[in-house]
Design a protein that fits this description.
single chain, 179 residues, mainly alpha
Length: 179
């Protein structure tokens, strides 16, 4: 994804393995955590009409407090955060979240803006799946395990990678005799 310092291959495989944030530069991890939170907050408002409490969606100038709770939750998920993550990195991430960068918890974001910023149609899906890994449930109570498995399969060249074609003879349904 553009806007990150380093490309990491097979993001959906990494999400499925719980290693999405591993082997990435610190600022990329911060950006992804912040934007996963921002995407989830936007989804909560747009899809469920449930604004994140104490956030920009309820009139606060910043969503830093609920973002801190998001980081608290992320820290409870075994191996979700990279091995180098510690209290100092968390403080840096919180500071980065209000640094005026594009990834700022004082600004709302849309799916279209995420796609444009990261230059990848699948960026919102990756961020939503990261948020699901943190919260333990997807937007609207959905479970993204099936979609993660399908996307993982596509990354490894399995079904759904665009190289599979199937044909069906519908002539009998249309009044023909078939073969």
């Amino acid at each position: 994804m553009k806007s990150l310092e380093q490309h990491v291959p097979d993001p959906f495989t990494r999400l499925d393995d719980g290693k999405y944030l591993h082997d990435r530069p610190e600022t990329d991890v911060y950006r992804l955590l912040i934007d996963a939170f921002r995407m989830r907050s936007e989804d909560g408002m747009k899809l469920e009409n449930k604004p994140t409490p104490n956030s920009i969606y309820t009139g606060n100038p910043s969503s830093i407090e609920p973002f801190k709770k998001f980081l608290d939750q992320a820290a409870t998920r075994r191996d979700l955060l990279p091995p180098w993550w510690d209290v100092g990195h968390r403080a840096e991430c919180e500071k980065f979240a209000e640094s005026g960068e594009w990834n700022d918890v004082r600004n709302k974001v849309t799916k279209a803006q995420m796609v444009e910023h990261y230059g990848d149609e699948k960026a919102p899906m990756q961020l939503r799946m990261l948020a699901e890994a943190v919260y333990g449930v997807g937007s609207m109570g959905q479970n993204g395990a099936g979609m993660r498995k399908m996307m993982r399969s596509m990354e490894s060249g399995g079904p759904g990678n665009g190289n599979v074609m199937s044909m069906m003879d519908i002539s009998r349904m249309m009044g023909g005799s078939g073969r």
